Amino acid sequence: MARVLLTALEPLPGAAGDGAADAARILAETWHGSAEIVARELTPAYTEASRRLRASVAKHLPDAVIVVATRPDATAVTIERLAVNLDDAPVADAHGAQPMDAPIVAGAPAGLWTTLPSRELLEALDARGLPAQLSVNAGSGLANHVFYVLQRELAEWGVPSGLIQLPPTAPSAPGGVALPAEVLAEALRTIVETVLGEEHAEPAPPEPAAPEYDADATQPFLMPISDPIATESAAESAPELAAAPLSVAPTLAPTAASPSEPSDPGLPPAAGRPETSHPVVVPPWGPTSGEVPALEAAAEAPAAEAAEPQQPDDDATGAVRHPTWDEIISGRSDR
Q1: How many CB atoms lie within 10 A of CB 320?
Q2: Is 173 a domain residue?
Q3: Residue ranges of region Disordered (predicted)?
Q4: What is the SS3 assignment for 213?
Q5: Burial zone of 205 (CB within 10 Å; 0-12 exposed, 13-18 middle, 19+ buried)
Q6: Domain final residue pick, 181, 196, 211
């Protein structure tokens, strides 16, 4: 994993609108890139700042180093391109030191170039609508001093390094430019992503949380959402009931025959006796026939049987009269 060392100069005592350290801290707290961001603050003193910078580089062995400072008169994010070997401090540092007309490192080159991709950083900031500009040199103050020490320290390392100066967070003069620390942090984010060769990606909106319960439930309690319950119609789910046969109780009682109905020619009178004179209805089955009636639910009622011709009275004819089936079954017999 790549590691970026982001160092920021702390504000001088009594300085207003110095948001470099705040912007670096915001970036480190909100960074979600593939690289590791190590944010460190430098005391605003010539000797102490150089010592802390060298110690941080030796400890973390970063793949890129960026120094961040606030420039009160800056109107945009300024990408410094040249560190000058000269200390000519306009104001004293936090320890009261104010070097004048002195080389930073005696006998060292007069200037050292940044190894950050200056032009690419400018284009990336412009593409995001952030004010940015290139600067030939960083002046001769504390920020330039740290810049020169950094470039000389990493001259043999071959890692990208340089100085970025930010506008103040509060105007230093009437009509001056001021940018919030959050905007400055976004500018630093763009710079780090460009140095690492990463494309800037807007953070994806959080996905809506899936409802844990069914909002349309009508029960007095809420049911967890699950797979829909398979339902079937009542007609499909109800078991088929076998149709119960209709029972018809047979009766052997004689029925009254209509006088207009003809007699059944298929029932001859008993042998040896004349036909009866009163109508008799004989069912199509009898107790001696061995046949059992078929019970059907939708069977129509049998038609009334034709009555036999009435037989003459035995006393009138003098012949022996035999009892009929109806008389035998009903017990009505005079003999």
Answers
A1: 9
A2: yes
A3: 252-335
A4: strand
A5: exposed
A6: 196
Half-sphere exposure of 95 (CA within 13 A, CB side): 10
Half-sphere CA count of 187, side-chain side, radius 13 A: 28
Residue 230 lies in a domain: no
pLDDT in tens, 136-187: 999 999 999 999 999 999 998 889 999 999 999 987 666 678 899 999 999 9
CA distance 67 to 53: 9
Structure tokens at 331: 């017990």
Enclosing domain of residue 59 = 3-196
What are the pLDDT digits (tens) for 299-313?
A: 555 555 555 555 555
The number of residues in the chain equals: 335
**What tokens appear for 66 in the block?**
């960026």
Interatomic CA distance for residues 171 and 169, integer angstroms: 7
Q: What is the DSSP string of 3-18?
A: EEEEEEEPPPTT--S-
For the residues of 142-185, what is the DSSP string, one character each?
Answer: HHHHHHHHHHHHTTTT---EEEEEE--SS-SSTT-----HHHHH
Instruction: Please choose, from the candidates 300, 302, 298, 307, the residue with its C-alpha nearest in 3D space to the C-alpha of residue 326.
Output: 307
The answer to whether the CB of 83 falls within 8 A of the CB of 165 is no
- What tokens were used for 256? 């009254």
Place of tokens 């990606």: 201
Q: Which residue has the tokens 């010592």?
A: 51
Tokens of 145: 């001093």
Mean pLDDT of the chain: 78
| Main-chain dihedrals φ then ψ at residue 325, nearest 5 degrees | -60, -40
Which stretches does DSSP call E strand in the chain? 3-9, 36-42, 64-70, 77-80, 82-84, 111-113, 132-135, 161-166
Specify the 3-state DSSP secondary structure of 191.
helix
Determine the average pLDDT of the residues in 73-102: 95
Contact of 72 with 172, CB cutoff 8 Å: yes
CB-based contacts of 108: which residues, under 8 Å, 6+ apart? 85, 152
Segment 35-39 shows an average pLDDT of 95
